[in-house]
């Protein structure tokens, strides 16, 4: 996969839960975030679509400070999927069309296209989300985020509660949608093997900062710090 221009850049970020954060995310790239609980991985993702704001430093999306984008537009273009699917009450279609409808962009045929991406039959459009399995709900959560046509996906432990079959399925379509549908992705994972399978680069976080970052194979196979060496042995 060729890595292209910088799409997201964080400089000297300090917040209540993070310190000394500096990185770039390029088009065509998947970055995986690993580290112990409480290291700041989820907090970092939340800064990137302004669920939280830093105390110091800047975050630029396509060369422009994210504070300069209207919040709805920013979250449309930088989509986030959580560990819990957090679907709304109602049908699958109700969930899929919610975001696009805010911008008057929903087209009925889009629902079938989105279900095809997450490998669910079109008949699911009329199903109540409460009738779905946990794995199906998470796949609908992905489809709901993709309905907004985001350029960046932020994923927070999205497969940690799923069975092996659903993990494999989600990993497969994540590989397929970058960079064809989504330009780049950042993904928090507790699964080192998943980081190896998906990440072009990996960031190891500990004590609220990025301790090591680089190509995934390099970070995981030749860790430079004692902290990461110890973490990988756990």
TrEMBL record:
GO annotations of cellular component type: membrane
Gene Ontology biological-process entries: phosphate ion transmembrane transport
CDD domains: ABC_PstB_phosphate_transporter (cd03260)
InterPro entries in alphabetical order: AAA+_ATPase, ABC_transporter-like_ATP-bd, ABC_transporter-like_CS, P-loop_NTPase, PstB-like
Any one GO MF annotation of this record: ATP hydrolysis activity
Keywords, in A-Z order: ATP-binding, Nucleotide-binding, Transport
PROSITE patterns linked: ABC_TRANSPORTER_1, ABC_TRANSPORTER_2
Domain ABC transporter stretches: 1-232
Record-given protein name: Phosphate ABC transporter ATP-binding protein
Species this chain originates from: Salipaludibacillus keqinensis
């Amino acid at each position: 996969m060729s890595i292209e221009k910088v799409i997201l850049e964080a400089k000297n970020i300090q917040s209540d839960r993070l310190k000394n954060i500096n990185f770039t995310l390029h088009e065509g790239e998947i970055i995986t975030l690993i580290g112990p609980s409480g290291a700041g991985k989820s907090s970092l993702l939340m800064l990137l679509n302004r669920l939280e704001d830093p105390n110091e430093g800047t975050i630029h999306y396509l060369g422009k400070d994210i504070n300069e984008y209207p919040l709805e537009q920013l979250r449309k273009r930088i989509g986030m999927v959580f560990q819990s699917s957090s679907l709304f009450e109602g049908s699958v279609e109700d969930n899929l069309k919610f975001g696009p409808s805010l911008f008057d962009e929903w087209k009925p045929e889009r629902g079938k296209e989105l279900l095809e991406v997450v490998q669910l039959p079109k008949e699911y459009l009329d199903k109540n989300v409460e009738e779905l399995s946990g794995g199906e709900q998470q796949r609908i959560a992905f489809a709901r985020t993709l309905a907004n046509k985001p350029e960046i996906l932020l994923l927070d432990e999205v497969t940690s509660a799923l069975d092996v079959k659903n993990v494999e399925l989600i990993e497969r379509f994540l590989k397929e949608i970058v960079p064809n549908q989504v330009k780049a992705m950042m993904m928090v994972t507790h699964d080192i093997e998943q980081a190896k399978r998906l990440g072009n680069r990996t960031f190891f976080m500990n004590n609220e900062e990025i301790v090591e970052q680089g190509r995934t194979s390099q970070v995981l196979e030749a860790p430079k710090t004692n902290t990461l060496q110890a973490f990988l042995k756990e």
